[in-house]
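Usage

Read records sequentially. Each one opens with the input sequence:
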Amino acid sequence: MVSTYKICIPPALRALDALSEILAKGEAHCTARSIDPAVMLQSRLYPDMFALTRQVQIASDSASRMGARIAGVAAPVMPDTETSFGELRERLTTTAKFLRALKPEAFEGGEDREVVVPVRGGELRMSGLDYFQAHAMPNLLFHAATAYAILRHNGVELGKKDFLGPMPIQQ
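and closes with the structure output:
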């Protein structure tokens, strides 16, 4: 039987690591073309969508809250003060460190643990597995994919492999 930890944490770490590498390519693109990084960081796909910086912050929050809620621990709170590619990558590193520090034992029974998610006007209550499948992982991937799309739209040379990150190969 596959553990809840293995279902949740490795894919979240893979998404965070890939997003960090995508941001590094975005920063290199700005440097090579003498583009003010602030312009790229404030780019968005459509006027009513969040800018690149906010997409990364939400991806980070989605990952840390997912791990915390399913493990039954408090999620770290990070202020949304990043203004550079380096600061965004550091935020992703901090999020990944938090997820790596969670003990697999804390996830035992997490698939059935009730998770409460605050939403406008109330809260959603669901099992840990439903939360992971229907909310947490789709939200993380949506914001990571949108960050990728913003950079790609702005000319950063990225491909599908950049979004997916390295394949986990069993030896």
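Summary fields computed downstream for this record:
- Residues 4-164 form a domain with the Four Helix Bundle (Hemerythrin (Met), subunit A) fold (CATH 1.20.120.450).
- The beta strands are 114-119, 122-127.
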